[in-house]
Amino acid sequence: MTIMYLALRNLFMRRKRYALMAIAILLGFSLITVLSSMAFGTLETIKTKAARYFSGHIAVIGFDGPDFAISNPDEIIEKLKKARFPLKAIAKRSVYYDGGARIFFSGNSISQRRAIGIDFEAERELFKSLSFLEGSYDSMLGDNGRGGILISRVAAEILGARVGDDVIFYMPTKEGQHNTAIMIVRGIFNETSIFGYTSYMRIDDLNMLHNKKEDAVTDIALHIKEGVNFERLAERIRVTLGKSFTVSPRINTNQDFSNISASHPTIETLGVIPVDAQLSEIRDVLNAFLIGTYFILAIFIVIVMIGILNTYRVLVHERTREIGTMRAMGMQKSQVKLLFLIEAAALSLISSFFGFLLGVISLNVIVKFVDLSALFFAGLFTENGKLSFFIDPKMVLYNTIFMLFAVLLAAWGPATKASNLPPVQALGKGI
Amino acid sequence: MYNREKKISLLLTFAIIFLSFPLLVFATPNSEHMNLLRKVDYLVNFTEHDLSAEYTIQRRDPGGAVSTTVATMFRRDRTDQFLILILEPLSDRGKGYLKQGDNLWLYDPVSRSFTFTSARERFQNSSARNSDFNRSSYSEDYTVVSARSERLGTFNCTVLDLQAVNTRVSFPRVRLWVCENNLVRQIQDFSLSGQLMRTTAIPTYQRVGDKWLPVTMVILDHLVFQNIGGRREYERTTITIRDPSLQTLPNSVYTKEYLERVNERRR
Q1: CB-based contacts of B247, cutoff 8 Å, min separation 6
Q2: What is the 3-state secondary structure (H, E, C) of A180-191?
Q3: Which chain A residue has its CA at the smallest distance from B121's CA?
Q4: Which value, to the nearest 10 degrees, does the dihedral of the CA atoms of residues A102, A103, A104, A108 take?
Q5: Which chain B residues are Cβ-neighbours of A180 within 8 angstroms?
Q6: pLDDT digits (tens, 9 = 90+) for B26-69
Q7: pTM higher than 0.80
Q8: pLDDT tens digit string along A320-336?
Q9: Chain A contacts of B197, Cβ < 8 Å?
């Protein structure tokens, strides 16, 4: 306890000497907090967008020959409900995956990567975060939504369409024949990324266009509660459904999905796909970004460590007489070493704490004032042009431990040297 | 009592015959019109010979931008085969479409690969569909749902409203203007929901052997247009067919190897 007190007192008394090191640690920690929180926030933003586009956080998709179909969706939903998985909502979807859909208006046209028929009542919660430039999600609720369509900002801009306009929606039937429907634009959602090349309509409207039974279903969208690992839950769901239905092997990447789809299963096979699997390419890019940020941090920390090493060497030299006095008064070698290490640890923890605070303030400033809507590629990882961040407590803990370890490692050598000084020699050599 | 029953049954018989008469009358034109469709198909299908010709496909965007594709077409209707080899533009030279029965492949000389494509896809991004190069099969794929007479420019035509009897065809509903010499002068293609998608006009034909081949076809895409100077201008594709020949072609022309070999020679 005395050593702890002495260490903290030394730290306070020599605060000017430690200031430079403290600033370096503080800046390093705030930098890594900003970068990693931004990366996690970006991933969360993409996942939210992807969950709307790819049938929930976890999608159950029916592969039936060359088509997509689930013949008994109610039975599957019942099984999922009974199993009491941490789900916020379960909703049926009918999705046209082939990319042949197109919207025409006033002579202009835009192709759609997919057309999505959704149960607007069931998916209301997930779409709450989707902002609309015109119209609203609620205008699709109930019978009002019949014949209505939600199109993206990018589609509206290309078509020159506004809410209330009649557009021609073109889509081939399941047999490959041309089909069209006149649909009323009920809402224009603010999406400019790859997730904007889609449109949402009622399931029965999409099925009519695709010449399928009006209640046909291709996907079951599962919306998961916060904090749940999608991949692990997807595996549990796959195992549960596997007891009653034919399920595909685990799907971890887009390629797995394409392989199963291309294999044209002869009996209806359910695929359980976490959104991470659909985003495997994007996730790889973000992981590369995270590795990059940690590389920057590592360089920063090496610089900080060299600084700490040099500062402590000078400190040990400056405090030789003090060390001699403490040793003469009966302090053990290990206690001297501990004293220096506690000083270093305290310096690291206090600086990291303030670095974290600075990081959080910086994040809020960035989110509030930085608008990337002018960048065409920013739509993928921003909501309305604004970045978002997510502070993962685990990440903060790891960063703190990492920083602490680095500082202690740098202080170790000088602390050992200080503890090994014989008291007589130390008292004699002091400044 | 017995006489009364006999009278009633006699009356009923007359009533049935009387009521069904219009149906019989109505049914007759249908079979006549189906015969007309068969004649239409017969006149433009080359079942006895191979057909080769040079096709120039000119696509004009509403507003003016023009792109031109020149292709050589080899067609063998008796086996439902064709091969189209793109000659221009230079960037697409060597590309090819090969149809064998129900299968249609697109060959890309850059990647040297064949990919499955669909009859309903646009041909080289024009208003023409891949299915437009097939042999004519209206009488097999459609039934006549109504017919009327109409004058189309200088032609007296029978207008036939057709509905598909199978799902092989791209357009589930078609309206044909067939003139007195049994040649089609105008076609309107509709989607399943009845939306007019294209109008094709065939103003002139050329005689090839005992059959007929269009000289030009003008296709308007009703979904792609611009309002220019108060007028609606549609995307327009003009197909001009030159140098038709009925010379017999070797079987090897209608193969993937042929497309690969042609491109090898070019390299």
Answers
A1: B50, B52
A2: EEEEEEEEEECC
A3: A100
A4: -90
A5: 191-193, 195, 197
A6: 444 478 889 999 999 999 999 889 999 999 999 998 877 899 99
A7: no
A8: 777 778 777 777 888 88
A9: 178, 180
